[in-house]
Q: What sequence folds into this?
């Protein structure tokens, strides 16, 4: 039965995402002590970036870096090595592939990695166990032996002679099974309706606060199985009751909420596992399609005129970041065109049929496929334009990006420059930046990747950074934290054909309306390169820190390992007042800076 329909104490949860666990558990008594030790080890999920940063903080040295020996001493990894689940050679290969921190102290010849590389290493180890799971799954579906096949054929012959199997349909599922399934769904919905009656008000409606106090949701939150942001996201996507000024939900919305809540969890019991393994007639795939169809209907319409195709795709995409015909029904502008007859259903179907599909699916398309669909629809209207008329220019996403960053910055309870953004916010910003980098206003494109010194000299304010190292240090210098708070960062670039001087000015606030600046002086230069992100010619901004000043203190910058994230960045977007940089070894690390005209 559905997860939300079981009493809380009878549920067994396992969050989506692989957790590093031993590949095998020995039953021999000689290993009982090892197993007891493993039980006390906290295994962090590979997709939990915040938890991985905390784990790194416990194991790294005073410079905020980690050696291979320290990595091997990390409890979760050490347990895998001791139990033989992770081979030493495998760990050596993963370590060799990880980017090393460039500034190693002179008294330490051993290579070290920062928090970004640690997360990469941890996830590479996690991938080894995903491969093992796939092998175990495939082994369960190996063909039967000749004796088994002969026995099955004999059994089939007996059934056919006795008239058995006449009640089964072409797909192999009996009407009785379908009836039982329908009955189970009906019973589950009846149980939820009873639960709804216990928390609704006199108008048979439920508020957000009342739903949060429902025992099912309250227990999940207290046990850490459900995050506040996840609860809020599901609530926002749940259809509200028509005519309700306070955004309340009725019983249908309550049922939709529970369906979305179910999607966050997977069962961990043998019964469901056996059902999944015995599903050889495509029933599991059909049920998954039904769930995806229901989710597509429940999610809100994507509205807005002239949105860039990349932004539309991101808003429409399902949890696998794919789009099908069901998801297209949520595209408001397309539905308006169909309603008004600007495009015929048969035209849309023909266009969609020509778009390449995601391998292993029948109708799903990825972002490249959606862009092809979008362009084909646009071409229908371009053909109708008069000769010589130019298609209307797609508006820039730059205002959308600046507006989003402004909304985040205006929240005084948050760390500036997006250093505490949620994963959803980071993904939305990343999608908009990817569109911005392709716009014709980008000097990186118009100048074929060749940027000159005069193009970037001036004072720039940091608006946003997704760098894991800066998030960990709560700023660039690492001096913020505790009672002090990072307040902002400026980058000053000066230069001509003789000199190139750079300066970082980081402002840190302390209680009592006081603040102080951390100044980092440096040299800088532009180098022609090839972007890891686009594969096209690009320009790398190389900054070499020299001295650090704060208060009366003055230190050589070689000892400040926290300055690494902005020491080498790939320039991916530039116009007169906005600059976007990506890490040269980690393109997920984005830096957005705006020119300060004052």
A:
């Amino acid at each position: 039965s559905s997860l939300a329909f079981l009493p809380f104490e009878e549920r067994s949860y396992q969050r989506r995402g692989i957790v590093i666990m031993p590949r095998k558990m020995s039953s021999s008594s000689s290993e009982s002590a090892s197993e007891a030790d493993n039980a006390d080890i906290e295994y962090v999920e590979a997709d939990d970036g915040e938890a991985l940063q905390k784990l790194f903080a416990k194991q790294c040295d005073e410079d905020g870096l980690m050696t291979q020996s320290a990595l091997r001493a990390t409890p979760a990894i050490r347990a895998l090595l001791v139990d033989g689940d992770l081979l030493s050679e495998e760990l050596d290969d993963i370590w060799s592939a990880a980017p090393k921190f460039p500034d190693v102290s002179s008294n330490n010849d051993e290579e070290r990695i920062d928090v970004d590389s640690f997360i990469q290493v941890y996830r590479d180890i996690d991938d080894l166990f995903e491969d093992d799971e796939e092998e175990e799954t495939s082994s369960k579906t190996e063909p039967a032996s000749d004796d088994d096949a002969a026995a099955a054929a004999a059994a089939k012959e007996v059934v056919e002679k006795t008239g058995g199997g006449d009640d089964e349909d072409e797909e192999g599922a009996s009407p009785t099974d379908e009836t039982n399934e329908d009955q189970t769904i009906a019973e589950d919905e009846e149980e939820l309706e009873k639960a709804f009656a216990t928390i609704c008000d006199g108008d048979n409606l439920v508020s957000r606060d009342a739903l949060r106090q429902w025992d099912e949701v309250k227990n999940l939150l207290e046990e850490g199985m459900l995050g506040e942001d996840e609860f809020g996201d599901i609530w926002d996507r749940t259809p509200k009751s028509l005519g309700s000024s306070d955004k309340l939900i009725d019983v249908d919305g309550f049922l939709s909420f529970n369906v979305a809540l179910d999607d966050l969890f997977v069962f961990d019991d043998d019964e469901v596992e056996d059902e999944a393994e015995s599903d050889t007639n495509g029933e599991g795939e059909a049920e998954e399609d039904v769930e995806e169809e229901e989710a597509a209907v429940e999610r809100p319409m994507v509205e807005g005129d002239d949105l860039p195709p990349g932004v539309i795709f991101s808003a429409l995409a399902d949890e696998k970041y794919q789009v099908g015909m069901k998801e297209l029904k949520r595209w408001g502008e397309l539905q308006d065109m169909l309603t008004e007859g600007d495009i015929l259903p048969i035209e849309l179907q023909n266009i969609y049929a020509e778009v390449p599909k995601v391998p292993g699916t029948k109708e799903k398309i990825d972002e490249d496929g959606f862009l092809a669909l979008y362009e084909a629809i646009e071409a229908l209207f371009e053909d109708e334009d008069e000769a010589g008329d130019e298609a209307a220019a797609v508006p820039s996403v730059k205002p959308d990006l600046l507006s989003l960053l402004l909304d985040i910055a205006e929240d005084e309870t948050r760390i500036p420059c997006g250093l505490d953004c949620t994963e959803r916010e980071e993904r939305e910003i990343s999608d908009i930046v990817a569109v911005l980098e392709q716009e014709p206003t980008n000097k990186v494109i118009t100048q074929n990747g060749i940027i000159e010194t005069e193009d970037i000299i001036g004072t720039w304010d940091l608006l946003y950074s997704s760098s894991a190292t800066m998030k960990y240090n709560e700023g660039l210098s690492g001096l913020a934290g505790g009672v002090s708070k990072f307040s902002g960062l400026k980058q000053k670039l000066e230069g001509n054909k003789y000199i190139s001087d750079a300066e970082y000015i980081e402002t840190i606030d302390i209680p009592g309306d006081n603040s102080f600046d951390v100044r980092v002086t440096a040299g800088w230069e532009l180098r022609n390169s090839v972007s890891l992100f686009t594969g096209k010619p690009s320009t790398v901004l190389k900054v070499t820190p020299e001295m650090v000043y704060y208060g009366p203190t003055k230190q050589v910058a070689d000892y400040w390992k926290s300055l690494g994230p902005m020491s080498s960045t790939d320039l991916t977007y530039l116009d007169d007042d906005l600059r976007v940089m990506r890490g040269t070894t980690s393109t997920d690390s984005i830096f957005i800076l705006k020119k300060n005209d004052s």
User: Anything to note?
Assistant: Residues 1-36, 158-172, 267-276, 386-392 have pLDDT under 50 and may be disordered. The first strand starts at residue 13 and ends at 15.
